[in-house]
Amino acid sequence: MERGDGMAENDDFLAAIKDNPLDDDLRKVYADFLEENGEPDEADRQRRYPEIRAESVKWMTAYADQLGSDDGYDDEMTYEKLMAIAKDYLENGGGYTLGFDTPDMVWESAEEFWKHYEIITAVEAPDPSATFFRCAC
C-alpha cells in the first residue's frame, strides 16, 4: 500500500480495530478496503479472524475441561472460569492453586494458552511461558 490517503485510511482502520478488536463487522469492512488496495492476503486473514477466534475458544474450552477433570477439586473448571482467572492474573497478578496432581499440560502448554487468550480477547499476554497456576504440592 502506497503512502497517501489510502495509508491514512488504513491507519484509521487499525486504530478502530485496536479500540474494538472483537467487532467482526469492522474487520469485514477493513478486509474489503484491503482487497481494494492490493492486499488480498491480509484481507483474507481479516475475513477469517472470527473463525480463528472460534477455534481458539474451542481450544480453551477443551483445556478447561481437561483441568476440570484432573484438578482434584469438586467444582469443574469451565471456559468462563479459566478466562476470568487469566484476566485476574493479568490485571492483579492473581494466581490459582490446582490440586496435588497438577497435569503436566499446565506447564507444557503455557505459550499456546497465551496465544489463544490473545486471539480471543485481543489483550496482549505477558511472558508467553508464564502461568498463573500454582501447585498445592
Explain what the structure shows.
With 137 residues, this protein is mainly α. The chain has one domain. 66% of the residues lie in helices and 4% in strands. The chain has a two-stranded parallel ribbon. The mean pLDDT is 84.
Question: What topology does this entry show?
Answer:
Blueprint (H helix, E strand, L loop, with lengths): L4 H15 L4 H13 L3 H31 L8 H14 L3 E3 L5 H5 L1 H12 L11 E3 L2
What structural keywords apply?
elongated, 4% strand, two-stranded parallel sheet, mainly alpha, 2 strands, 137 residues
Give a concise summary:
The chain has 137 residues and is mainly alpha-helical. 66% of the residues lie in helices and 4% in strands.
End-to-end span in angstroms?
55 Å
Main beta-sheet annotation: 2 strands, parallel
Q: Care to count the β-strands? A: 2
**Biggest sheet strand line-up:** 1-2
**By helix and strand content, what is the structural category?**
mainly alpha
- Point out poorly predicted stretches: none
The residue fraction in helices comes out at 55-70%
Counted by DSSP, the helix tally is 6
Q: Return Rg in Å.
A: 19 Å
Beta-strand content: under 5%
User: Order of SSEs, N→C?
Assistant: HHHHEHHE
Structural shape: elongated
Counting structural domains, the number is 1
Mean pLDDT across residues: 84
